[in-house]
Specification:
- The chain is of the alpha/beta class and about 300 residues long.
- It contains twelve helices and 16 strands.
- The strands form four sheets. It has a seven-stranded parallel sheet, sandwiched between helices.
- Strand 7, helix 5 and strand 8 form a beta-alpha-beta unit.
- Helix 4 runs parallel beside helix 5, helix 4 packs across helix 9 and helix 7 crosses helix 8.
Length: about 300
C-alpha cells in the first residue's frame, strides 16, 4: 500500500480540486517538455483560474529570470505575470536581500547564466562573473598567481552554468577558502530535464567546489526549506490548502511534503509510476495522474 491515489475519473478530479485553493507547479516535465507544451495544459490552467484557484510556478531552473519565464509562457500561449513565478535564481536573490541582509558594499561571484544576474540586479545586489565573456576561456599560466581572494566578494552563488570552466571554478574556490564568504546554490539538482532527456544539472556545477572546499552550499531551490520559507513569505498560503504539482520525486514532491503541502505527481517527466509503487519508495505523492491535462480531459 503506497497511500498514493491515482486520479482517473471526473469524480476523482472534483474531489481533488475541492481540497486545495493554491497550486504550485513545476514547469519542465509538468507544463512542457523543452519548448513543446504538453496536451491540454493551457485548458487545465484556465479551468483552475476560472474556479478561483491561485497558480504559482516554482522552478529550479536558474538560467531564466521571472521576466524571461513570462516570455516563454507567452510564447506557448499561456498568460502569466512575473509575480506568479518563483524561480531558484529569484529565491537566491530574495534570500540574500531579505534573510541574510547582504551588505550593499559586497558583491556576489556568480557561476551561472543571465537569469541569476537579472534577479540579483532586481534586488539591487552587485555581482561579478556570470556571463562575463572575459571568463569564457582556458586558464593561463599567469592566472595561477593572479587568482587571489577578492575582499569585495561576500558570496559565491552557484547555478547552472552552460559555460563552466576551470578558470571560473578556480576563482570560486579561492574565494570560498575565506570562511566568511557565503556559499549558496540556486539548486543542487543532479540532472536537468529538457527536450525529453536528462542533462547535467546545477548540482554538477557546485559539486567540484563542494569536494575541493569541503563546504556545503545552502540550496535555494526545491526541495530546500530555505526556498519554501521564501515562497511562503511571499504568497502567504495555507499549507494544508495548497498542492505542489511536479514530475520529480526528490525535488518537487519532497518539497511539497516537507512544506506540509498536498502533492500531485504527473508521469510526464523524470520519475515513473513504478518509482512510487515500489515497496522501498522513499517519497510517495498524495495523488498522481498520467498528465496534468487529465484534469481538463476528465472533467470534459
Amino acid at each position: 500500500m503506497t497511500g498514493s491515489a491515482k486520479i482517473t475519473s471526473k469524480t476523482g478530479v472534483e474531489e481533488f480540486l475541492s481540497k486545495y485553493d493554491d497550486f504550485l507547479f513545476d514547469c519542465d516535465g509538468v507544463l512542457w517538455q523543452g519548448d513543446v507544451l504538453l496536451p491540454h495544459v493551457k485548458e487545465t490552467l484556465n479551468l483552475l483560474r476560472e474556479r478561483g484557484k491561485r497558480l504559482i510556478f516554482v522552478t529550479n531552473n536558474s538560467t531564466k529570470s521571472r521576466k524571461a519565464y513570462t516570455k516563454k509562457f507567452s510564447k506557448l500561449g499561456i498568460e502569466v505575470t512575473p509575480e506568479e513565478i518563483f524561480g531558484s535564481a529569484y529565491s537566491a536573490a530574495v534570500y540574500l536581500k531579505k534573510v541574510v541582509k547582504f551588505p550593499a558594499d559586497k558583491k556576489v561571484l556568480v557561476l551561472g547564466e543571465s537569469g541569476i544576474e537579472e534577479e540579483l540586479a532586481s534586488e539591487g545586489i552587485q555581482f561579478v562573473g556570470g556571463t562575463d565573456p572575459a571568463l569564457r576561456r582556458d586558464i593561463k599560466p599567469e592566472d595561477y598567481d593572479e587568482i587571489v581572494p577578492d575582499p569585495s566578494i561576500g558570496c559565491v552563488l552557484s547555478g547552472l552554468d552552460l559555460h563552466i570552466n576551470y578558470l571560473k571554478l578556480s576563482m570560486a574556490l579561492t574565494n570560498l577558502q575565506v570562511p566568511e564568504t557565503l556559499f549558496l546554490a540556486t539548486n543542487i539538482d543532479s540532472t536537468y530535464p529538457t527536450h525529453g532527456k536528462l542533462f547535467p544539472g546545477a548540482g554538477t556545477i557546485c559539486a567540484p567546489l563542494v569536494l575541493a572546499s569541503k563546504r556545503q552550499p545552502i540550496s535555494l531551490g526545491k526541495p530546500s526549506k530555505a526556498m519554501m520559507d521564501c515562497v511562503k513569505a511571499k504568497f502567504e498560503f495555507v499549507p494544508a490548502r495548497t498542492c505542489m504539482v511536479g514530475d520529480r520525486l526528490d525535488t518537487d514532491i519532497r518539497f511539497g511534503q516537507d512544506g506540509g503541502l498536498g502533492t500531485l505527481f504527473v508521469l510526464t517527466g523524470v520519475n515513473t509510476e513504478s518509482d512510487i509503487l515500489a515497496e522501498n519508495a522513499e517519497t510517495v505523492p498524495k495523488h498522481y495522474m498520467t498528465k496534468l491535462g487529465d484534469i481538463f480531459e476528465l472533467l470534459n
